[in-house]
Model the fold of this input.
Amino acid sequence: MLTSLFGATTLVLGFMFYRASTRAIQLKDLSDEQRLRLVQQAEHIAPPLYEPHLGVPAPGFYHLRPNTLYDRRHPAAGPAGVLGDVFTTNEIGFRSARVLPKTSGRRRLVVVGDSWTFGPGVPFDEVSTQQLQRLLDREGSSWEVINLGMMGWNTANELAALRVFLPTLKPDVVVICPTSNDIDDSYEIWNGRLAWAGFDSGAIFRNSYEYERRWVEAFRQLQDAADLLRRNGIPSLIYFLADWHGLAPYYAQLAHLTAPYVVVPTTYIRPPYRLPVEVDAGSHPTAKGHSLIASYLFNVLLHTGIVAAGKPVTLDYPVAFPGDRYDPGAIKQEFAAWRQFIRTPELVHGDGEFMRLEAMVSLPAGPQITKVITDLELIDLPGLYPLRIRVDISSPEGAFQEQIFERYAAGRHRIEIVKPRSLDRYDFVEVRVRADRVVSPPGSTLPVSMKNPKIRLQ
Done:
């Protein structure tokens, strides 16, 4: 019997040794030093695209690596290279001409924006800033155009970059190019990659207080930037790109925007002037689309006298400065047209069925809605309690309720809040749920606070 027991024990131990020696190594098996070495080796296999710019008063401000060749060897590259091109960044980390010392008689025009200014999917020579450069050169002008555009930036990123690089660039004119998703919370950088962070408007316009508040703040930031440039003797222009339609003047009036601005003609950012999704997931402009965007801007610069001489490009649309004039009926129709594309997803995302620190949902509403009902479901994890949960209705009144859970309690816990009457004029209501702490469940590295809340209107 002892012989049989010994044989069985030997067999079990041998099997365990075999499993341990043949199973794939996991991250949890590695020491901190080994993990660091793995990350360093991974950078050679998959070199980072971006790097943060330290010391900037705006979170998530980043750019490409300065003086770096981005070519077909990068794992993110397609057949045309990285983001549709093979290029070397300039000394401040942008896909642009080099920033040479300014010379007398040569004026510098800086164009700051996001991916629409950066120009993914087309070679750099076809990007709007380069096409604008050629239009200026055609007239014998002594202008140089600097492209200060970056993938994933929002208005805050763009204006932070402008403030940071203003002393270096010393522009004579600045063109700011906001797009229709510039109220997004943009991206964060993790190991040189873009990671989505926070609010995602999806370049869709909702008639809601949360969206209106964010747009008004973005437009006020644009006004502040224009005022700063004016105090420094630098004329500026705001050039709204992507799908604005008739809404830019609406938000301009709400934000008291007085800075000069124009909106790209809608036809110029529609098919066939947008790249197919199989070429560019963001459907940014084609080379022809960039040409139309540049040509319209060139005509605007002539119209304003910023560019003193030259022959306008023949286009289907004359230069127009909307100011704060708009037709309320047209705005109502605009929001109604957008409503059919809206599926009310979570705007701040969780992981599957669980919430991290916060979640926010957008719900169709109207004057008949009087109450917001939120059902909470806790999870039984050590170290999570006491847990404070706060439910906010995005509104001028700042309506909210808090509940503290001293310990885990099974079942659903309901929080009801009266909907503020100030929201009756909007088509959607945004509700945000926040927790004051998170923990990671056993066997997971993802922090969670509770199950995703169930929110409905009544």
